[in-house]
Amino acid sequence: MNLSLNQWTTRRWTVAEAVDGCVRHGLEAIGLWRQEVAAQGLAESVKLVRAAGLRVSSLCRGGFLTAGGLPGEQGRRAFAAALDDNRRAVDEAAELGAACLVMVVGGLPGVVPGEPLSGPVSRDVAGARERVAEGLAELAPYAGERGVKLALEPLHPMYCADRAVLSTLEQAVDLCLPYPVEQVGVVVDTFHVWWDPRLFEQIARAGERIASYQVCDFLHPLPADVLLGRGMMGDGVIDFAPITRAVLEAGYTGDVEVEIFNADVWAADPDEVLSTMKARYAEVVLRS
Amino acid sequence: MNLSLNQWTTRRWTVAEAVDGCVRHGLEAIGLWRQEVAAQGLAESVKLVRAAGLRVSSLCRGGFLTAGGLPGEQGRRAFAAALDDNRRAVDEAAELGAACLVMVVGGLPGVVPGEPLSGPVSRDVAGARERVAEGLAELAPYAGERGVKLALEPLHPMYCADRAVLSTLEQAVDLCLPYPVEQVGVVVDTFHVWWDPRLFEQIARAGERIASYQVCDFLHPLPADVLLGRGMMGDGVIDFAPITRAVLEAGYTGDVEVEIFNADVWAADPDEVLSTMKARYAEVVLRS
Fold it and tell me: Does residue B148 sit within a domain?
């Protein structure tokens, strides 16, 4: 397993700066975000990672496929727009040679992250999960033709309303099994799944379907914005070693991305963040 | 099904005031909290609910059985103290004639709700779940002898670290099945379980094991203190009707408790809260 920097961990760095940082710290892989790639320019981003000899362990992110659950024309348009955007994301992932496109599938139709409820909202969580399956049926062949693997990410159930109605690894594995393994896989992100009583059984079941292993800690207490509850490994409550071991035993040979959304980490010197990240990876994530 | 006021919803009311409020609003049942019963006096509380002709739909709460996972003498003492406290809670539930004693089983050993991590902490979530099973083995016969049913409450996974390592209804049902149905059951609380892809299958599986049905909404966005993310039914993202229907179809005939932890609800006039609660119960919870 090789350590990879998900660039959101060093959020103030551009793609160019993050690529330089990886090289400076001896990392061989980087996880990129679409908006940062767009800001740098897609062609320029491709050039930078190639020149640095970095693997692109993932592109974040596609998904948000559930808005089609809104009634009538509004729903149809939202679904079509989401598919278009996801096809562009697949194209970008292909250009970058990313190991996978991370899919955050979307929450309840009409629920906007961080915003109070307003306008039409659907509370039909089962229906929203069906919309995800429908979207996947459209996108998986498109991704397959371009050599891109879609990686379905189950998110912690506290994000079920606004970000991902995929709440367990089991659901994600269920969804990907109808497709070829090179088209659809799953993300195992410690923050999202550590609490799950079925975690180890589902990691084993996922096997070669594991397209990405992401690590960060679950902080306690959670901060006021729960999106920023992701901490440096060792700063929270997760026991990483058994999860890492299970992912390895399932056959995963890819990179391990550190993806931290955290106001203190973002405020810190990114070079210090990388140094800490490398040390904690060895001490906490790989410790057996 | 009959509506019950969980007294935490009208937190500023004493037991006497909450009993009066229930009578004034035509409610036949009340859910009590141990600290409020202690403040009123146990014998006086018994007298008040009897005189008012109210059912006690639950006593909140026993549990916090996981601290025994701390090493050595500290762990042994904490486990013994937790058992003692739970036996007292059983005795109080027996005196009150409560339909069940709600069990919030406890989080990771050494993790304190609302407090930063400090001192010894165990990150062994599987071990903590074993401690819960051990505690239950001690307490179930004790409760059975006194005619009290322990009701295991799975809490939303965002409380796994600090309040309950029971995170799914499936886990709770697994834990209660070895015991007689009159000794151990489960709580279905909409706030905690609405997101669970296995919810409906597990409600059906729970059947006569459902000892309590609690309702409140899941707010979006969550407030800064996630403990207070519980809202009045209709103010959040939960589709109550299918859950209520499933609980009924599973054979539940008990009371439906409204339990809301919410700064705005606590600040409001409790009589207005009860009026709104009755209206929303009819419109949102029972709507078919």
Answer: yes
Q: What is the pLDDT of residues A191-227, one digit of tens each?
A: 999 999 999 999 999 999 999 999 999 999 999 999 9
Distance from CA of A123 to the nearest CA of B (A): 5
The chain B residues in contact with chain A (CB within 8 A) are: 108, 111, 113-117, 121, 123-125, 129, 156-158, 160-162, 165, 167-168, 170-171, 194-197, 218, 220-222, 224, 226, 236-239
**Tally of domains within chain B:** 1
Helix (H, G, I), strand (E, B) or coil at B89: helix
**Alpha-carbon distances, residue A4 vs A8, A254, A255, A267, A273 (angstroms):** 12, 10, 6, 20, 13
Contacts of B194 in chain A (CB under 8 A): 125, 160
Spatial separation of the C-alpha atoms in residues B81 and B68, rounded to whole Å: 9
Domain of B161 in residue numbering reads as: 2-212+240-256
Contact between B116 and A161 using a beta-carbon 8 Å cutoff: no
Within a domain: residue B273?
Answer: no
In a domain, B279, yes or no: no
Chain A contacts of B236, Cβ < 8 Å? 117, 161
Chain B residue numbers touching A119 (CB-CB < 8 A): none
pLDDT in tens, B153-174: 999 999 999 999 999 999 999 9
DSSP state of A222: P
Nearest alpha-carbon partner for A42 in A87, A95, A108, A79: A95
Q: Is B38 a domain residue?
A: yes
CATH (domain of A71) = 3.20.20.150
